[in-house]
């Protein structure tokens, strides 16, 4: 068949990682990764989280919300959720709401995480239950210099 089977009773998992607050990492060995300017609070992000939660819940997804996690914790959480994905689940959705730049999103400690590292964890062939299942990565963050026009 040319479609993925979807079952609203087991739609799947929707992981939302919301970075609202930011601080500068204090580990001196990571200082070189900090952005030139301090990252500020993302006001209004709670509204985005509630809309994502409401929308994906309506489609039958189990919501997993994680907030204000550092760069290592972000990857660990994604790893854990992909491990928890069961054969009965139809789809995996990962939403990351944060500051970002081209190809990266920031942990709440202002250390970047490469989008390619996130994709690698979501799409790993070692995750047997995710094999041949749709995986969606939604980024609510800047990804380059060009601002969206109103």
From TrEMBL:
Belongs to the peptidase C14A family. One of its GO terms (biological process) is proteolysis. Pfam families: Peptidase_C14 (PF00656). Residues 10-146 form the Caspase family p20 domain. This is Caspase-8. GO terms for molecular function: cysteine-type endopeptidase activity. InterPro entries: Caspase-like_dom_sf, Caspase-related_regulators, Pept_C14_caspase, Pept_C14_p20, Pept_C14A.
């Amino acid at each position: 068949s040319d479609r993925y089977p979807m079952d609203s009773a087991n739609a799947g998992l929707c992981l939302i990682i919301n970075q609202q607050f930011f601080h500068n990492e204090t580990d001196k060995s990571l200082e070189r990764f900090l952005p030139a300017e301090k990252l500020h609070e993302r006001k209004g992000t709670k509204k985005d989280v509630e809309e994502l939660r409401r929308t994906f819940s309506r489609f039958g997804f189990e919501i997993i919300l994680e907030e204000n996690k550092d760069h290592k914790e972000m990857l660990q959480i994604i790893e854990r959720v992909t491990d928890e994905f069961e054969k009965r689940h139809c789809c995996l959705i990962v939403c990351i709401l944060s500051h970002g730049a081209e190809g990266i999103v920031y942990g709440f400690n202002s250390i970047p995480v490469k989008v390619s590292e996130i994709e690698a964890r979501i799409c790993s062939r070692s995750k047997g239950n995710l094999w041949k299942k749709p995986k969606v990565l939604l980024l609510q963050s800047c990804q380059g210099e060009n601002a969206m026009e109103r």
